[in-house]
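QA checklist item 7 of 12: single-chain prediction sanity check.
[x] sequence parsed
[x] length recorded as 113
[x] structure emitted
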Amino acid sequence: MKPDKESARGLAQVEGYLLLNAEVAEARRQARRFTGDLPWLTTAQREDVERVYVADRVEVCRETLTRIAGRAVELRGEYTARYDRLRARCVALSVLTAGAVSGACAALTLIGR
């Protein structure tokens, strides 16, 4: 693997790690806020509710990111196919145009003799 690709991959992994940690921290804040509204919970119950809340939130986040990543791969394939078709059309049109111009020049040269 090229160094640039390795660097980009490493940076993407670091970014993913930081985003996940930020999501977990936000889930913990929200869990504490949620359990704060339930004063009758014991300390153990509060910790259990917070743990389950954070785990659920992280799982939902992972599912969402997996779905988005899959869709991004699908879109990349669709756009690559469209680009390839467009490029083939442009090349064909260029070849036809060059052929038509060459034919017209040849015809004019023959007519001019």
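[x] summary fact logged: Residues 24 and 58 are 7 Å apart (CA to CA).
[ ] second reviewer sign-off
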